[in-house]
Design a protein that fits this description.
Largest sheet: 5 strands, antiparallel
Helix content: under 10%
Structural class: mainly beta
Distance between the termini: 118 Å
Number of strands: 97
Oligomer: single chain
Strand content: over 45%
Length: about 1450
């Protein structure tokens, strides 16, 4: 910090008056002795000095505040005024006869400012200064003050400084120990601010660059530039100057960092414009308490440097002079000034009129860094009385601060040698600050100085005037007489010749430039203000000034010369400049013959890139990709070479819906000296375009040649993706074609269902929604045989294009160009067409009449200048809310010396639509090249809110060009994008969805124009997989959200139907697009589900009650929502798994399950089994359930048995598919158990001879007390064919070995379904098998037969089992016969299998009936089994109701 000066006492009022008188006597004595011993070149003017308030100031500014042509004086500082301590700002005027008068006093009186009492700047005028400049470009100098924990911008209102602060608290910082300067860092004509110092009650060091973002209508906005990185400094100075003469301002900063002993000086170069970067090659000594002055001291037209301050390196005050040589590099001058100051100022001006600038240096000349002493007692010896006898102490020096003791100023004369030698001219004692101003109007710089002879004594302060007494005359310089200006891209160059001066070199002259924009006669707005402070200029010594980004329109400008003594010339004559709305850019892109260029955002960086194809005269023809890198289009050298076409078309389109734009090209291609018609599809892959060579994709030879407009993309079938239509001739078979290629997941194939399409050549075509039904129709124009025709095809809503009987246009001509746009903003697309009719060229605008008459027809709206080999494109280039039109092409023909006809007189016309809908040629666009064989397209490639123009073609001089013309409209009338749509809704119908939204709204621009009517807004859609369910889902899978520039993919209206959607969950969104091709933000996502899967049964619960009552609960599986209405309820009925005729009436019986409830996905019903029903196993048939999308379930069959086998009663278990069942006789298990039968997946590889699925019957660990019977369904083919060849059997997977253990088995048929049956002794995994040879069974027991169950009920109801199984083993294949006898020995039934049975376990089923088919009475029966080896016997019981 800066420390206070101690020991000063306040004086009484009488004493102060006495000292003031003594001060004047001292000054007079000084003047007297000077006259005796040497003439002073600057003499004190006591009379003029008396007008100025004697108060020490930190800065004195000089500028013409009231625009009377004479400089005024601004005095600023911190002092005690009356009883008030604080900042002051006083202004004084100078009259034409040199008299000084007060203008405004105590402007800052109402503001609280503060410098701590121990801060010595409090006693030398403060720790801040002022900076002068016309920040609002109103032609009046404004004042920006800082210091004393304050920042204040006062606006000069017609010569009066306002007492209001025009820099609000969002930007202003309360600065102390600060430095601040205006400077146009970004060359936009308005003044920016850089400052550094302390803020937050001096607790934080800061530096800031605050950009003035004023618009061209005078509206002021500020914005901090946070891109610069530099050390935070205080207690120093900053200064702007173009040190390297590159046309922009560079910055020097110097000052103290944290500690009082530190110092830093750094130079920052402005490159590119507006970006400050440190120049680390400079070696400028670090100082603090610095003063800086840039000035051309050696008259070589670049600024040299004078810097003064405290050097922490050698702890001295010093002034250093640096020569700028070579330009932009500073080196110390050989001679230096042996006088240094701190907290002062440096000014450079030619005081003796020799043409070289001299220097005034002022400030504090006696300075020290002081510390507070703190004593720490190490040891202490104290007497008994408490007196200190001895002590050892350590002194700590804390809180370093600067102290100043004396002020002084000196004037140094430049010796004019060019080596920057200076000699002392005069001393001004007590001066903290010295400023130059021509007070007596003799065109010589006089001095106003302020300071104090005794720091801390307010009554010793002074503000004095010293008049220049050099005898040399100084005439006004003359202004430049040669002024030139021109525009290129968004840059405008103003340059002029030298002014003239009577004394110095022309290189020593500086210039003020004034530029104004003429809106209308009485509305002139300043671009570059001519209001500058005294002895300063807004362009320096350069004879050129460049502006970037100024509006189009009429300008007047003039130049003024300033000589080294600060004298200004009259203004030059005014020069006029007209800048058209569209100007040539600086982009360098080759021209192509028969070329086409298109731009779109290839790499999704929100900048338009460029693709161009055609023929180069160099012979190395190819398609080039240019990437937009911050407004610069550079060839993408990483792009592999792409083939080219000429005489055709190029489109950007995401045809494979991956979210990246691909490229399609059609036309003529030449490969290996062979020319053919080609269609080239390049897809975006890993950052480059690669040829789509998918085997299912269209081939190159599927292309046609038909002219520049021979292919177009649109979603004609409304399935979301873009389809291709192309027309023209195929050289391969010399046949004309008009083909629609349907897009299916990125693979294009010919739509062979179209029957009305008529091929043309040449062929121009375009998709267009003629009748507003949101289905794309098709227009084609071209030649049919020898006649020019036009055809209109109306989409029937199913993707079928029906040819209209009438021609939409009566234009029997060829060589068409066509473009779609809603020129009258009624929501229906109109068209512009250029064509050739014999030797007559036409360009016409046609209005779509469907909106007014509901008839598919077009009417002629306006005829424009005709052209052929033309290009057309719609766009709102003037941002007034309606569409304008660019046309180009040839307009005449001529005959060559060889007698050939050629097309001549190319044009590029832009037609501006007026308020009446009439298109008027914009003749002001003189920079645009006229071209034929042309390609044009609008697009905002520099993202400045207006449409730029891309042009490719051949000029009248046969020059091939590709040019970009930048639109300057956005600088004053930037297009406002529309708002995003809201209230998205989705209505699904099976595999289609109707989406709708509330449209966006396009607001007016800042100029109260530019609104695209609601009806004319277009929309981009995006639709894809729902990432809430699949994070990696493709959100472009249905409709890509990446669109090329232009009308492709645009949709009208607020409702659309998307068809043929696969089942899945989707999200979609929409954005608005206006006539200027600006689009809104995307809307929020909306979601829907396409459900094409009918409901299915997820789970069935069967609860068996008493009396044959069964509760059945069905849970349906449904992704969307079940339809629970009455007519869509499930139908569920039951049958017996084995017995179709339940009641014995020889008819198949079904039992209806009565609905109890149906809610959501759960259906509950009641099944009542009749008394005749045998057992508890049921077969359920479920059908008719529907979801809310109308999907009807397929009929499903399920088999159910009680959940548990009751040990004493036994029972059956059936698999859910009914193919496997197992019978547990009574007491086969020791306890009640639950048994499940489940199919086993992925086990077929165990044995390729299986003839059924594998089934797991569990639990495996159950010990069976009796044999059980397993039944497995087998295919019919194994019954109809010779069984001996199959050796069918049931096998079990051996848990130990994993092999198949054959068990044997017998074929039976139940309800015409063949089964294989076998006895089981344990549970496990089983299947049915065939064998090529007779299989071996490990162990058989051929000595016994068993009937299971031992008691059964063929008449039902008593036991579950309606039949018994006769179980036996065979050691080998054999023919067997079973006989059943009653106890009286009478035979009741003989059962003899038709075929021999195989080895292993076999089963013969007796259903309890006799030979007559009648159920035998209850009782005990004898069963015998006769084989070739034995006769076996057992008994079985029948128990009927």
């Amino acid at each position: 910090m800066i420390g206070m000066v101690f020991g000063l006492k306040h004086l009484s009022r009488q004493m102060a008056s006495l000292i003031k008188c003594l001060l004047k006597i001292i000054i007079l004595i000084f003047i007297f002795f000077t006259n005796i011993f040497g003439q002073s070149n600057f003499e004190l003017d006591e009379e003029r000095s008396d007008v100025l308030q004697n108060i020490i100031s930190s800065d004195i500014g000089v500028a013409d505040l009231n625009n009377d042509g004479i400089s005024d004086i601004i005095i600023y500082g911190y002092n005690k005024i009356g009883t008030q301590q604080g900042l002051f700002l006083n202004t004084y005027s100078i009259s034409s006869d040199g008299e000084i008068d007060t203008l405004q006093m105590n402007i800052l009186n109402n503001y609280f400012t503060y410098i701590p009492e121990d801060h010595s700047s409090r006693y030398i005028g403060g720790d801040g200064k002022i900076s002068l400049g016309d920040y609002d470009r109103d032609g009046f100098i404004d004042v920006l003050a800082h210091g004393a924990e304050f920042m204040f911008l006062t606006k000069n209102i017609n010569g009066t400084l306002s007492t209001n602060n025009y820099l609000d608290n969002r930007y202003a910082e309360s600065l102390g120990e600060s430095s601040l300067q205006w400077g146009d860092v970004d060359l936009d004509g308005d003044l920016d601010i850089f400052w550094m110092g302390l803020k937050n009650s001096r607790g934080t060091i800061t530096n800031k660059l605050l950009l003035n973002q004023s618009d061209f209508d005078g509206n002021i906005t500020w914005e901090f530039d946070n891109s610069i990185v530099m050390p935070d400094l205080r207690n120093g100075a900053v200064a702007w100057d173009d040190i390297d003469l590159d046309g922009d301002l560079d910055l020097l900063t110097s000052g103290q960092q944290i500690t009082a002993e530190s110092g830093v000086t750094k130079l920052y170069l402005n490159d590119p414009v507006g970006r400050l970067g440190e120049d680390t090659n400079q070696e400028i000594e670090p100082l603090k308490g610095t003063s800086i002055c840039f000035s051309d001291l050696d008259n070589d037209a670049d600024s040299d440097l004078i810097i003064s301050g405290y050097s922490p390196i050698d702890s001295t005050l010093k002034t250093l002079v640096y020569i700028n040589e070579p330009t932009g590099n500073f080196r110390l001058a050989e001679q230096q000034i042996s006088f240094g100051t701190i907290f002062g100022s440096i000014k450079a001006i030619d005081v003796n009129m020799d043409g070289f600038k001299d220097i005034a240096i002022s400030g504090a000349v006696e300075h020290s860094i002081n510390y507070d002493n703190i004593y720490i007692i190490d040891t202490l010896e104290i007497s008994e009385q408490g007196d200190v006898l001895a002590a050892d102490t350590t002194v700590l020096l804390l809180n370093p601060r600067d102290s100043v003791w004396a002020l002084e100023g000196k004037i140094f004369l430049n010796d004019g040698s060019g080596n920057l030698g200076f000699s002392e001219l005069q001393t001004i004692d007590g001066a903290r600050t010295i400023s130059f101003v021509d007070i007596n109007q003799d065109q010589k710089p006089d001095i106003v100085a302020s300071g104090s002879f005794e720091i801390g004594n307010n009554d010793s302060s002074f503000v004095s005037v010293f008049l220049n007494t050099f005898g040399n005359d100084n005439l006004k310089p003359t202004p430049p007489t040669v002024l030139e200006s021109f525009a290129i891209s968004n840059r405008v160059i103003f340059n002029w010749g030298d002014g003239q001066d009577d004394i110095g070199s022309n290189q020593a002259l500086r210039y003020n430039l004034s530029i104004s924009r003429v809106i209308i006669e009485n509305d002139v707005r300043t671009l570059l203000s001519s209001a500058t402070s005294y002895n300063s200029s807004n362009t320096g010594t350069k004879l050129i000034r460049e502006f970037t980004g100024i509006p189009w329109g009429n300008y007047i400008w003039k130049v003024q010369t300033i000589d080294p003594s600060g004298v200004v010339s009259e203004w030059s004559n005014e020069k006029e400049l007209f800048i058209p709305r569209l100007v040539k850019s600086f982009q360098s892109i080759p021209g192509y013959s028969y070329g086409i260029s298109r731009w779109s955002d290839i790499n999704n960086d929100n900048l338009l890139d460029l693709a161009i194809t055609g023929n180069l005269y160099t012979g190395s023809s190819k398609t080039q990709i240019y990437l937009n890198e911050d407004g610069i289009l550079n060839v993408n050298n990483l792009q592999p070479q792409m083939a080219n076409v000429y005489g055709g078309h190029l489109s950007f389109v995401d045809y494979n819906n991956d979210g990246f734009l691909d490229i399609s090209m059609s036309g003529l291609a030449t490969v290996n000296f062979s020319t053919f018609t080609a269609l080239l599809l390049y897809k975006w892959e890993n950052g480059n375009f690669v040829l789509d060579d998918d085997e299912n994709q269209l081939s190159i030879t599927d292309g046609y040649w038909g002219g520049q407009y021979n292919h177009d993309w649109a979603d004609y079938d409304n399935d979301g993706d873009l389809d291709l239509v192309s027309g023209g001739i195929s050289i391969f078979d010399n046949t004309n074609y008009l083909t629609i290629f349907k897009n299916n997941n990125g693979i294009l194939s010919k739509d062979t269902t179209q029957t009305d399409l008529i091929p043309l050549f040449p062929c121009a075509l375009i998709w267009i929604d003629i009748n507003g039904d949101n289905y794309k129709d098709l227009l084609t124009l071209g030649r049919l045989q020898l006649n020019g025709v036009s055809h209109m095809y109306i989409n029937d809503g199913m993707g079928k294009l029906i040819k209209s009987s009438d021609q939409p246009f009566e234009i029997p001509s060829i060589l068409h160009a066509i473009s779609v746009g809603d020129h009258n903003s009624d929501g229906y697309d109109d068209i512009a067409i250029a064509h050739l009719n014999g030797t007559e060229m036409h360009t016409n605008i046609y209005t779509n009449e469907y909106g007014s008459s509901s008839i598919n027809e077009f009417s002629l709206h306006q005829e424009l200048q005709g052209a052929t080999y033309a290009s057309l494109d719609w766009g709102d280039y003037d941002n007034d809310g309606d569409l304008d039109l660019v046309t180009s092409g040839y307009t005449a023909t001529s005959t060559t010396d060889q007698g050939l006809e050629e097309y001549t007189n190319p044009i590029t016309n832009i037609y501006q639509q007026d308020d009446q809908g009439i298109f008027i040629f914009d003749s002001s666009l003189y920079m645009i090249d006229s071209v034929g064989l042309s390609s044009t397209q609008w697009g905002d490639y520099d993202n400045d809110g207006d449409l730029d123009l891309l042009v490719t073609g051949e000029t009248a001089e046969k020059e091939l060009i590709t040019r970009i013309y930048e639109n300057l409209e956005g600088f004053t009338n930037s297009n406002t994008p529309p708002t995003k749509p809201i209230m998205l809704m989705s209505n699904v119908n099976i595999d289609s969805v109707q989406i709708s939204w509330q449209g966006g709204i396009d607001a007016n621009n800042s100029t109260d124009q530019g609104k695209t009517l609601d009806e004319a807004l277009k929309y981009h859609l995006q639709m894809g997989e729902d990432q809430n369910y699949n994070l990696s889902g493709n959100v472009h899978s249905i409709i890509s959200g990446n669109y090329g520039t232009g009308t492709m993919g645009l949709r009208s209206g607020n409702s659309h139907i998307i068809n043929s959607l696969p089942e899945g969950r989707y999200q979609w969104r929409v954005r608005s697009v206006d006539h200027s091709l600006s689009f809104s933000d995307w809307s929020d996502w909306d979601y829907f589900y396409i459900d094409q899967t009918p409901p299915s049964v997820d789970e069935i619960q069967v609860n068996y009650g008493v009396g044959g009552q069964i509760i059945i609960i069905v849970n349906f599986k449904e992704e969307f929502e079940m339809n629970n209405s009455l007519n869509t309820e499930p139908v569920i009925y039951a049958m017996h798994p084995d017995i179709n005729d339940i009641d014995g009436d020889n008819l198949n019986d079904t039992l209806l399950v009565e609905k109890q409830s149906y809610s959501a996905t759960v259906w509950t019903g009641l099944l009542s089994l009749p008394g005749e029903y045998v057992g508890k196993a049921i077969k359920l048939n479920i059908s008719n359930a529907q979801d809310m999308r109308g999907n009807i379930m397929k009929s499903e069959i399920f088999f159910k048995t009680p959940e548990k086998i009751i040990s004493q009663a036994g029972g059956s278990v059936i698999s859910s598919d009914g193919k496997v069942s197992i019978l547990f006789p009574q007491n086969a298990v020791n306890e009640d158990i639950s048994v499940t039968i489940d199919p086993v997946a992925n086990i077929i590889s165990l044995d390729t001879n299986s003839v059924s699925d594998f089934y797991s019957i569990s639990p495996y660990e159950i010990n069976l007390q009796k044999p059980t019977v397993l039944r497995i369904a087998i295919p019919d083919s194994f019954v109809t064919n010779d069984l001996k060849d199959h050796h069918l059997h049931i096998g079990k997977i051996n848990n130990a070995s994993g092999n198949i253990d054959p068990l044997g088995g017998t074929i039976i048929t139940v309800n015409n379904i063949p089964y294989l049956q076998s006895e089981l002794s344990e549970l496990g995994i089983y299947a049915a098998f065939k064998s090529d040879s007779l299989f071996q069974v490990d162990s058989v027991n051929t000595d016994m037969i068993v009937c299971q169950p031992r008691i059964f009920s063929p008449a039902g109801s008593v036991f579950e089992f309606p039949h018994t199984n006769i179980l036996f083993d065979l050691s080998s294949s054999d023919n067997v016969t079973a006989r059943i006898f009653n106890l009286a020995g009478k035979i009741k039934r003989t059962i003899k299998p038709e075929n021999s049975l195989g080895p292993g376990k076999n089963v013969i089923v007796w259903d309890g009936k006799d030979f007559d088919g009648s159920i035998v009475p209850s009782g005990l029966y004898i069963v015998t089994l006769e084989s070739s080896e034995s006769v076996l016997r057992t008994t079985v019981g029948v128990l009927n109701r």
